[in-house]
Amino acid sequence: MDHKEIKVSEFSKMVGIDATLLRNYINGFKKPSQAREQAILAGIHTLAREYAAAAF
Known about the structure:
56 residues; mainly alpha; 0% strand
């Protein structure tokens, strides 16, 4: 099963952030604003809900 949304480039599209900028946040080169951090966390929570709702 391919989960492309867990790739940085695909996740960045989902939350509307440039992939390079998201990688800089992940690697600690840059710090996101509070609003940007909330958008990233909202995307993570959305993915978590989708995976939790998946039926096996």
